[in-house]
Amino acid sequence: MADTSIFSDNFSSTPWWWTGFSPPAEPPAELPRRVGTLVVGAGYAGISCALRLAEAGEEVLVLDAAALGFGASTRSGGQVSGGVNVGKSPTRKPLPKTRKAALLRDAAAGFTLFEELLSRHQIRCGYHRTGRINGLWVPQHEQGWMSRIEDLNRYADADVRMLSRAECRREIGSDFYHGGVSIGRAGHLQPAEYYGGLLAAARRAGARCHGETPVRQVRRAGGAYAVETSRGNLIADRVVFATNAYVGSYARGVAGDLRRGVIPVVTHMIATEELPEELAKSLLPTDRAISETCRVISHYRLSPDGRRLLFGSRATFFPAGERHTAELLYRSMIARFPQLAGRRITHSWGGRVAMTFDHLPHIGGGEGRFFVTGCNGSGVVMMTYLGHALAEKILADAREPVCAYDDGLPPHPALYDGTPWFMPVVGTWFQFRDRLDRRQPARTSV
After folding, report:
1. What is the pLDDT of residue 91?
2. Which end of the chain is more exposed for a tag (fewer CB within 10 A), N or C?
3. Cα–Cα distance measured from residue 383 to residue 396, given in angstroms and rounded to the nearest whole number
4. First vs last Cα of the chain: how many Å apart?
5. With 0-12 CB in 10 A as exposed, 13-18 as middle and 19+ as buried, what is 354?
6. Distant-in-sequence, close-in-space partners of 190: CB < 8 Å, separation ≥ 6
7. What is the Cα–Cα distance from 131 to 334, expressed in whole angstroms?
8. For 190-246, how does the pLDDT look when each residue is reduced to its tens digit (9 = 90+)?
């Protein structure tokens, strides 16, 4: 039975972010009979790609199966950085040095592009460039992070340094962590407002963007593509698939190969009621964004006005309603901040994250068919950058890779069909291992 005492009277199962921008309910629009580029999927990647193409004078149409911005782009934690998560995986398999350097440089370029877009298009989205801290789950994680600092600072200009337990305690009003990792080139924003600003910029540039228009089939037709949608048929000279974790919202004949390349994982978030100013300030005195070094992380930050805590994690790997996931997240939040006991939850929601089997995002394609996929939990900056990079590939008609992530579809097991039937088992095992590590801190985490 749900613990109703933790919920506010006006509790909502929609994202708190939607108080700033919500997916628009727009009247059906007539589709063109032919278009230069069709972008399937209207998240950060799809809209960023459309923006760059439209600015170059290309005729662009963006279609989404749901309302524009309904997916992860307006549901995420709103943390931004440039390269910190590159190569991170539960297996800790190291990347080759040259490959890692190239990936880090491009991730850093993505952060630069993100800030340039904010400035050029005057996107107001509560952006706080206050840095980020990864709390050490166990003391043994310090060694692994120490080995990463040189590359992160050299290739990604990430401004990373280790924090002692006492230093971490001054940054986070909690004794939960065994120290931390400070990332200077990072921050947080209101992700729905950022999405709304990016969408508005793409439309001003001439891109046509329509939601509630599922694409049912895409097939080769001579030198172009015949596209069947819920609102009629059209011809596109080229097609970009930017469906990410929501590829399952489309018919299997649309992007079946992409479906097999990603593992959709649902992540969850809650928002507290408005907190007294002194209490909110005591939680995160320097207004950093917070993540962790364990397998199944919790992430959190203050709202742009500094009055609420927004707390997220993969609360469960089994299907669950928003009230149940809110209870689970509430317990995790109180474990880190006991002083929040009794504070109520106003919003609880979930969204899908696209994981890949190599834990890296990818773009690629050719002959009029292109894709961008696999945010791996770094959607705001990375998907913006990769959508833009894919547009550059199209504009240049490039045969060679345009960035380090331009390497084709991610590998996947032969028997995987896009249904993540194994995630409840794998995810629950990771959660168990995290708990075990905390109980036995002398063990080395793998």
Report:
1. 54
2. N
3. 20
4. 36
5. buried
6. 17, 20, 21, 78, 125, 126, 303, 304
7. 23
8. 999 999 999 999 999 999 999 999 999 999 999 999 999 999 999 999 999 999 888
Residue 411 one-letter amino acid: P
The mean pLDDT value for 52-63 works out to 98
* pLDDT at 89 (0 to 100): 60
* Residue 195 token pair: 């999405």
Phi/psi at 36 (5° precision): -70, -55
Instruction: Give residue 440's pLDDT.
Output: 73
Q: 361: closest CA among 387, 382, 345, 340?
A: 382
Q: What is the largest CA-CA distance in the chain?
A: 66
Residue 28: per-residue pLDDT = 84
- List pLDDT tens digits, range 399-409: 999 999 999 88
How many C-beta atoms lie closer than 10 Å to residue 111's C-beta? Answer: 25
What Å distances lie between residue 208 and 60, 66, 203, 228, CA to CA? 6, 15, 6, 17
From the CB of residue 22, how many other CB atoms can be counted at a distance below 10 Å?
16
Q: Which position has the token pair 């979930």? A: 350
CB 361 within 8 A of CB 277: no
- Distance CA(115)–CA(358), nearest Å, equals 28
**Strand extents, DSSP E, 247-399:** 263-272, 289-292, 298-302, 309-313, 345-355, 362-366, 369-373
Contact predicate 160/183, CB 8 Å = yes
Domains parsed from the chain with CATH numbers: 4-21+30-425 (3.50.50.60)
Q: Which of 44, 43, 46 is nearest to 61 (CA)?
A: 46
